[in-house]
């Protein structure tokens, strides 16, 4: 009891750290004696002290009497920190707190009832559903509204009928909560029950949101009407709801009922209102607005969506909107093209390329002669994407462009044209391969790769430039042709390590027994990255011969090679590979140990107890944390005693914090 007296004295100290350490000392005191000091600490002015008390109390597995005491703290009107701590503990106790909480749903204190309802909703135990349904009739409006909100949070279908019945009580704010709950539950309900409430200005938005979540095709007229509402928030809610409803309707016919209704808005003032909302910062709303504008197909939306393509974050959505607009959108962009500035023209060209608009060939040809590099590049890429063969000569001419980006665009365009016109692209590739310029020969590799021409790629593997050789090796490997193995084996002795890495990786992709012995020889390469590439390829090919070679290597490997060996072994099935990975736990390199822990954690928990004491007392703090996390994930609550012991002897503050966090998560 001397400890308790000291603790009580320290809890009155003006020093925050003294009070926090006093809480930690309570870990050695039985709960019956520690309870009152802990309750005091839960109301401390310092959040650090309160957090420590909450964590310790949760770890002590409170009995029924203690839980009742914690619930009693909810009525502490003059100490918000104490009430919040009580809420945190009760929520942390989860289902263990539910029976006691349910007895307080009739508490005389309406604030306590409100807290209890919210805590039950956060815990989400479905045994509390009947009591929460009864709470819909609570005489206090805040409690009944909280009951509705938390029924929605739990999402149990048993709540739908009582919520609909309560919707008829004509209390606006209560109805607001009910509509939100029905939206969260998402169970379909008759539309005609909801739509009358849309006449109330306050309820219009939640009704629309609810219809988007639970309505059917009958809700479409009201949602389309909402798109033209004078209140921006209602318009935006309607856009989100109609997209959500469209995604839920089964069958093309049902979806068309939405599309047809939206298409009829073309030329209306509704489009102006929706365009005015595009500056919203809510990504979900903006997504819905763009999609709705696309379905409407009004040409006025084409340019705003085009502007949106300038922003990388919006580009995908705007392209989707333009794609939905189809020919009308492309023609609107064509009409705007002459008056657009160069940047806008480049974006329009990109959009045409993305959407495959074939009516722009003449404009693309002219753009390839522009003085602006970005237009020349965009036109070359777009012509390739669309497949305009008549522009192949113009694209090829850009291979001599002074700007690197333009030359890149031309190669990309030709690569895309290769499947449709291989003879023409092969002729261009042959010319590039004979060029004295290294860059041109590198481009030849890319074109031959697009043509799948293994013979020409093999020739370029002998180029004088290592970059060309490496590209040719990689391109040849990508063909996945067994007859290419001999060429890749030859590249394993190239003077350039990057070429050898590409060859080793390529052999792993192609596979086959013919590649094993050359890869084993490459495990003695002077470059560690070549050894890593060979290891990965041997692992990919597999077999006892590969495993023998990897086992010999890990006896002498360290650093990145050792880590790669462990990662490779983890991808090989069988007890032998697992035993070899365990050797990593004995490494003097903490990074190797951490990798071994992570890899073994993916393969079950059989190894945990055998290595637990050694790894929880490892000399490196990061290893102790890594193992504690892995053990927690693998053993769940069974890890708690071991984590508690580790916490008691741990001196490092960082590790202590992590152990407490892990223990808190398990409670």
Explain what this protein looks like in three dimensions.
With 667 residues, this protein is mainly α. The protein has a domain at 611-666. The chain contains 43 helices and no strands. Helix 14 (204-214) packs parallel to helix 16, helix 19 (283-296) packs parallel to helix 21 (312-325) and helix 21 crosses helix 22. The longest helix has 17 residues, at 232-248. The protein starts with a helix and ends with a helix. The mean pLDDT is 91. GO terms for molecular function: oxidoreductase activity. This is HEAT-like repeat-containing protein. It comes from Geobacter sulfurreducens (strain ATCC 51573 / DSM 12127 / PCA). Pfam families: HEAT_2, HEAT_PBS.
Question: What's the arrangement of secondary structure elements?
Answer:
Layout (H helix, E strand, L loop, with lengths): L1 H9 L5 H10 L5 H12 L4 H13 L4 H9 L7 H14 L4 H5 L7 H14 L5 H6 L6 H14 L5 H7 L5 H14 L5 H4 L9 H11 L5 H7 L5 H17 L3 H12 L5 H8 L6 H14 L5 H7 L3 H14 L1 H10 L5 H14 L5 H7 L5 H14 L5 H6 L6 H14 L4 H12 L4 H14 L2 H7 L5 H13 L6 H7 L5 H14 L5 H7 L5 H14 L2 H11 L4 H12 L4 H8 L7 H12 L6 H9 L4 H15 L4 H10 L3 H14 L1
